[in-house]
Write a structure and sequence with these properties.
CATH topology of the largest domain: Rossmann fold
Number of domains: 2
CATH superfamily of the largest domain: P-loop containing nucleotide triphosphate hydrolases
Bound molecules: adenosine-5'-triphosphate, magnesium ion
Radius of gyration: 26 Å
Structural class: alpha/beta
Strand order of the largest sheet: 1-2-3-6-5-4-9-8-7
Helix content: 25-40%
Distance between the termini: 66 Å
Strand content: 15-25%
CATH class of the largest domain: Alpha Beta
Number of strands: 18
CATH architecture of the largest domain: 3-Layer(aba) Sandwich
Length: 508
């Protein structure tokens, strides 16, 4: 009997519904065994997400346990890493059948199929959460310990309670250990916090506490949307306007420094990745992150990821600070720092002061908070260094027409940071929450800065700004969203702007 397990069924068309009570959708997660069922639960009075897996009777459960125990003794855990998914499934199938024969177990083909699903899930997959990880629509998975349901964030239905509840402390603890192992990290009582990335790029945070008062270990998984959104998709989602993007395109071309600020999950990293499309194709880019999130459509790019130490002492640890310092040896034109938090800010700003362009994000709700945070512990920059920052973009959560979205709230130019640490700023572009419209004014202090540095008139910069705005708008109207294609068009524009404008029918 050939076992077929398909872990990426096609993405079903799901529609948002204003009447949550009428929602009742079901789609496959792992073919042909597991599906998601999203429906209204009238007892809980909320929309719930149910993972539907094959049901095992008591006899089958006993058999599964026996086979699992035997498999644990002999299986080589590395097969899953070294092989294709098909080969791994086949290996597991063969090994299980051999064991069943040796143990003289009597299992019907029908039972074996169901049991094999669980063997697959627990040995190759990531146990109970494996179906959730396979769901295209899920952005976040959150487990707050034993006895409480795992919650997810769904692209269409947002926050949903699932029917997955951990009842056993040891089972949850060993799952968190497995997460750590898959992320190539180490978690223990002595090092109870995990911040890492799974092989598919999903980001995982976990805590490992098992004392009596707590609800046990917790974890969150933020799924890696492998292909990041392009600037054109952000226009389509109304996160920002073509003018805003054209503005950043000019800033990045002339190697100015941009920092994206905002609250947790406000879309900073997403915006950072989209803006990085505008970096000139021939420039050398080095990116530095704690966990792998950035993905760029270019060849001349060195992605680096910080590494925490394994085991005793600080052996093997490479933190952002060390990475950033060594990255200057790679002589980058552009430095991308996934998130600025501590002493690495000093290295970054020194780099900016010596002419390196930078693109980074930082947790702060406003420019005032940002400027203050940069000058207080643990960062402690001098006003002179803060002054090397050219521009700040503020990303924000917004609920528009009852739908949760992200908006680029304002673009703020840092005109001058005074000796007392206060900053003089100019805000050329902003989003109005009441009308959900973007506004821009003509005067840009940063354009004046570029003009003075490069001898180009502000007028010419404004003309260029208009052309690029029109081009981005045309791409949006033509629904050109693809990661590689958008990357190619922008790169092509750097080499031959007139041709690209003609191609998209843009008159100067
Ligand atoms: N423009 C957008 N429109 C809709 N959803 C978005 C947008 N940008 C990001 N998101 C969603 O918001 C979540 C967080 O995005 P992102 O990681 O970019 O935020 P962040 O501010 O960098 O978060 P963190 O504070 O964890 O660093 C993701 O699940 C992403 O899919
Ligand atoms: Mg981020």
């Amino acid at each position: 009997m050939a076992l077929i397990i398909t872990t990426n069924p096609s993405v079903p068309p799901l529609k948002r519904s204003d009447d949550k009570r009428s929602v009742d959708v079901r789609y496959m997660l792992i073919l042909p065994y597991t599906s998601a069922h999203i429906h209204w639960d009238s007892k809980l009075n909320e929309l719930v997400y149910e993972i539907e897996e094959p049901l095992l009777d008591e006899n089958e459960k006993g058999l599964l346990n026996q086979i699992e125990d035997a498999l644990l003794e002999i299986i080589n855990v590395n097969v899953a890493i070294d092989n294709t998914p098909e080969a791994t499934i086949e290996y597991l199938d063969k090994t299980s059948k051999l064991l069943i024969e040796e143990m003289n177990l009597n299992i019907s083909p029908n039972s074996y199929e169901k049991i094999f699903y669980y063997l697959y899930r627990d040995f190759i997959g990531l146990n109970e959460v494996d179906p959730l990880l396979k769901d295209y629509f899920i952005e976040d998975i959150e487990c707050n310990g034993i006895g409480s349901p795992v919650y997810i964030i769904h692209r269409v239905f947002r926050n949903l309670r699932t029917n997955l509840v951990y009842k056993d402390m040891d089972r949850l603890a060993s799952f968190v250990e497995k997460l750590a192992q898959r992320a190539g990290r180490y978690i223990s009582y002595a090092q109870p916090l995990l911040d890492g990335a799974l092989p598919d790029g999903s980001r995982v945070n976990a805590s490992y506490t098992k004392d009596v008062t707590s609800k046990g270990p917790t974890y969150t998984i933020r799924k890696f949307t492998k292909i990041p959104w392009t600037p054109i998709q952000l226009i389509d989602m109304h996160t920002d306007s073509p003018e805003m993007l054209a503005y950043f395109w000019i800033l990045l071309e002339y190697k100015l420094s941009v920092l994206i600020a905002g609250g947790t999950a406000s879309g900073k990293t997403t915006l950072l990745n989209a803006l990085a499309f505008f970096i000139p194709p021939e420039a050398r880019v080095v990116s530095i992150e704690d966990t792998r999130e950035i993905n760029l459509p270019r060849e001349n790019w060195l992605p680096a990821v910080a590494r925490t130490s394994i085991g005793v002492g600080k052996l093997g640890e490479v933190d952002l600070f060390a990475l950033l310092r060594s990255s200057f040896r790679q002589t980058p034109d552009y430095l991308i720092v996934g998130e600025v938090r501590g002493k690495e800010a000093f290295v970054l700003f020194q780099g900016m002061a010596s002419g390196h362009a930078s693109l980074s994000t930082m947790h702060a709700d406003s420019v005032d908070t940002l400027i203050r945070r940069l000058q207080t512990p643990p960062i402690n920059l001098s006003p002179t260094l803060v002054n090397t920052l050219d521009c700040v973009a503020i990303a924000t959560h917004a609920v528009v027409k009852k739908v949760e979205t992200r908006r680029l709230r304002e673009i703020v130019e840092i005109v001058q940071v005074n000796k007392d640490g206060t900053a003089l700023v100019n805000t050329p572009m902003s989003w109005d929450a009441n009308t959900d419209q973007f506004y821009f004014k003509k005067q840009s202090k940063v354009f004046e800065k570029i003009s003075a540095r490069h001898g180009i008139s502000v007028d010419d910069l404004q003309k260029e700004f208009k052309k690029r705005t029109k081009l981005l708008y045309a791409l949006y109207q033509k629904k050109i969203f693809d990661f590689d294609i958008v990357g190619q068009i922008i790169n092509e524009y750097y080499k031959n702007p007139a041709e690209v404008l003609v191609k998209y029918d843009i008159k100067e």
